[in-house]
Amino acid sequence: SSPSDVKRVVQHAPEPELVDSERARHILGGISARLLWALTHDGTIPCVRLGRRLLYRPDTLRELCIDREQK
């Protein structure tokens, strides 16, 4: 398979329902781990706790960005 075939598959791969903190930080524009923790801890950013892991819904993170966008 050519690189363009691989790129096409990657572009159409479904996004996971839940993402880890590293991916969440990327979705939120590259915020620091400390800021993500603070926003999660104070309830600004909802998360799903599975054992000791905190996972985030990508759609919720994007909505948060849109809601906080300055107009």
Describe the model.
- With 71 residues, the chain is mainly α.
- The protein has helices at 3-12, 21-27, 33-41, 58-68, and strands at 48-50, 53-55.
- The protein is 52% helix and 8% strand.
- Strands 1-2 form a two-stranded antiparallel ribbon.
- The protein is globular and about 45 Å long.
- The termini are far apart.
Tell me briefly what this model is.
With 71 residues, this protein is mainly alpha-helical. The protein is built from four helices and two strands.
* Largest β-sheet summary: 2 strands, antiparallel
Mean pLDDT: 87
Number of strand elements: 2
Helix-strand pattern, N to C?
Answer: HHHEEH
The N- to C-terminal Cα distance equals 45 Å
Proportion in helices: 40-55%
By helix and strand content, what is the structural category? mainly alpha
Low-confidence stretches: none
* DSSP strand content: 5-15%
Number of helices: 4
SSE diagram, text form:
Elements: H1 3-12, H2 21-27, H3 33-41, E1 48-50, E2 53-55, H4 58-68
Provide tags for this entry.
mainly alpha, 52% helix
